[in-house]
Amino acid sequence: MTKLMEVETGRKAPTKRRGSFYSINLIIFVFVQFFLVILFHSETSSLDSSFSPSTTSWAFFNRWKGLALSHSNLTDTLISELRESVTFLPLKDLRFSKTAMTWNTWFMSSLNDTIEENEAEYLYFPSKASKGRLLCIKGHDTRDGTRNSYALAWPESLPNSTMFMKGLTFVSDFYYDYVNLWHGVCAMAPFVGWSMKNECLRPTRWVLFHWGELRNSMGQWLQSLMQANFGEVLVEGFEKGDGPYCFEKAIVMRHNVGNMGKEKRLQVFDLLRCKARGFCGINKEGRGREVNERGEPIIRLTLLMRKGSRSFKNATAVIDIFARECARVKGCLLKVVQSEDLTFCDQVKVMSNTGIVASPHRAQLTNMLFMDRNSSIMEFFPTGWLELAGIGQYAHHWMADLSGMKHQGAWWDPNGEKECPFPKEDPECFTFYKDGKVGHNETFFSEWARRRQPSKDKQAGTSHPESTAEIKRLYLLVLADHLPCHKFKMLVVHLPLFILKVHNQFFL
Fold it and tell me: What is the per-residue pLDDT for 59?
């Protein structure tokens, strides 16, 4: 747990770090051998011409002393020259500004990612790929990423005035921000995945960049989620001077979930879910199927409301529609929640006890990750989003896919309160409509709520998992809250078949 295993390019398993003194010592070794050969020949010549034990010993001592001093001076000179040769490059490379969200990232553009199957791309320092060199960062500009810079340096020849940062540092560069819930969790998920694969290592600190610009904090929701998973969150602000700051160990992520495979994404979000529930004191183990006083299975439907922008124009009417449909289904319980009134743990609790959630489109829907897998989501949009918002309006479809939920549809309000004064193709039109309020359609809302209710067979408890994979998933959900992170990872990958058989025999 405490020892970091180095992950190298092209390998799936960490390897031990090779000597970081290699390059310097090789040079020194060659020079020492050269001087020893000269000394040997010199002493042989001296002994042949006139042999005197006392004078020869003293001469040999003086020669060796001079050689040792020369060796020391040579070492100091080499280290000094290596320090001076450390080259800092801009963190943000404007040559790749048009491809910053694709393979050619503009952040640390001279360095190639380590690629592993089903894992997010990353950089690790020190490693074989970095030739044992550490990552160093200089500058703390919050407005221009080209004014911040990075370099690689050997531990013995760090640049002058270096602030050495011990421990493991998580370094992130993200195209969006760390305040928005959806964007933030996408930026952090790769670190959780990497940690799962590497003995659940925890960072000593975080260093956050946006377009190469330093960020001194992350949003409170995101910080709470990371605290639940890693413990105390310390975001480094480089406040001890201009640097450079060199990191003993560093992992760099710059592609959010990137190439992470679907199964690995589900594992990451399963872990985030169970860690958040544990952090907030929520334990669902052993509850089984919830029933009411009449023995009917409980179906929990939550309306996640908000005030201000993208709220419902007539919230009372929307609540009435869902209340009416819920009342038609035995065991259905409707809960109406104002999202802005909830703390992080309040949100975890509400969503952990929700099977169906309906909400206007907003970052608050990111909380779906705290619901049990295969829960249902529906979202509602203001006028103008369908035509003008582009792919961004599908963020919560992606979130549902990441976290194992079922996105059951969306409704776009066709009737805006005002018409955009600009041509419809003008980008200003989306800005005009973006934060508008959402109307409702009683027929559509009623039909959607009716379709989302479980069938009679499911209410009677006659449904069964359809595959071994589904049984495995359910079993993991039961056990996850009581497993350490590394055992959770091992169970996901290596769950023995006999456990599934036992589960089938006693629980199905």
Answer: 58
How many angstroms separate the CA atoms of 213 and 228, rounded? 27
Q: Are 207 and 107 in contact (CB under 8 A)?
A: no
Token reading at 233: 């969150």
Compute the half-sphere exposure of residue 148: CA atoms within 13 Å on the CB side of its CA.
27
Positive or negative CA dihedral for 40, 45, 46, 47? positive
Instruction: Using the Cα atoms of residue 409, residue 451, residue 357 and residue 259 in order, give the sign of their dihedral.
Output: negative
CA–CA gap between residue 200 and residue 197 (Å, rounded): 7
Alpha-carbon gap, residue 438 to 312, rounded angstroms: 5
3-state secondary structure of 169: strand
pLDDT in tens, 217-243: 999 999 999 999 999 999 999 998 887
pTM over 0.85: no
Give the model confidence (pLDDT) of 427-444 as tens digits. 889 999 999 999 999 999
DSSP class of residue 156 equals G
CA 34 → CA 29, 30, 63, 208, 273, distances in Å? 9, 6, 14, 48, 63
Q: How many CB atoms lie within 10 A of CB 420?
A: 17
**244: preceding bond cis by omega (within 30 degrees):** yes
Question: What is the model's pLDDT at position 323?
Answer: 95
In angstroms, the CA 463 to CA 485 distance is: 31
What residue type is 68 in one-letter code?
Answer: A
Assess whether pLDDT exceeds 80 at residue 462.
no
Computed from CA positions of residues 55, 56, 58, 59, in that sequence, does the dihedral angle turn out positive or negative? positive
Q: Which of 120-129, 146-155, 464-473 has the lowest mean pLDDT?
A: 464-473
SS3 at position 500: helix
Contact 121, 103 (CB under 8 A): no
Burial class (CB in 10 A: 0-12, 13-18, 19+), 415: exposed
